[in-house]
Design brief:
Layout lengths: L1 H16 L7 E12 L3 E4 L3 E6 L2 E13 L2 E18 L2 E21 L4 E14 L13 E13 L4 E14 L2 H5 L6 E16 L1
Antiparallel strand pairs: 1-4, 1-10, 2-3, 3-5, 4-5, 5-6, 6-7, 7-8, 8-9, 9-10
Length: 202
């Protein structure tokens, strides 16, 4: 399964590399906020939940056209927040700060002159500040599937303001969770809203 993800990622990047150097390069930077569903949700005696708080997030992308209305894009993002712990519906503290770094290859297509869609395949790496509890033995790299919408408002021939919506999905588990008897992995969905600008050359 992991091999498939790597091959698919390489395929999209190779398609972008095959575009002539004269093609329009588009660089985009967005700043926003990302919300996440729970990383851990289980019930032993009382319900236990570990959930990241809203995370300020930076989104970066670089894209090239691969067809008339289609672009190949390399997308990076990084956000950080606390990981809140609740037991029986009551606040039980936090697990320290938790960074989330993503790298993905995307296909971006035009819906209209200003609105576009994107589909992504990549990886996500959690970066906990405190390597204890569920993060004691580290966090494995997770496959990431994403989708999004971008609305662009042109300011000039090269500059545009961008409003972006990002959704992604991955599965979460750690060696510490498995050792504690947690079976399987948690399905995690994240939703981000961001504002920024794009620059196109030439």
């Amino acid at each position: 399964m992991q091999t498939f993800h790597i091959v698919a990622l390489a395929g999209v990047l190779a398609a972008g590399a095959a575009v002539p150097a004269a093609a329009q390069v588009r660089l985009t930077a967005l700043v926003g906020i990302t919300g996440s569903s729970a990383l851990v949700k289980d019930q032993v005696i009382e319900p236990i939940e570990v959930k990241p708080a809203l995370a300020p997030t930076l989104f970066l992308s670089a894209s090239l056209p691969v067809a008339k209305t289609l672009r190949a894009s390399l997308d990076l993002s990084y956000g950080t927040s606390t990981a809140n712990i609740t037991e029986g519906g009551s606040d039980a503290g936090d697990a320290g700060s938790l960074g989330a770094f993503t790298a993905a290859a995307s296909l971006v297509g035009a819906i209209s002159s200003r609105l576009s869609w994107r589909l992504s395949l990549g990886v996500l790496q959690y970066m906990p500040s405190d390597k204890q509890g569920i993060f004691a033995d580290g966090v494995p790299l997770a496959a990431l599937f994403g989708a999004g919408l971008d609305y662009q408002h042109p300011f000039s021939d090269r500059w545009s303001g961008v409003l972006g919506i990002r959704y992604d999905y991955h599965r979460f588990s750690t060696s510490a969770l498995e050792a504690a008897g947690f079976v399987g992995s948690q399905q995690v969905s994240r939703l981000g809203l961001a504002l920024g600008a794009s620059w196109t050359h030439p």
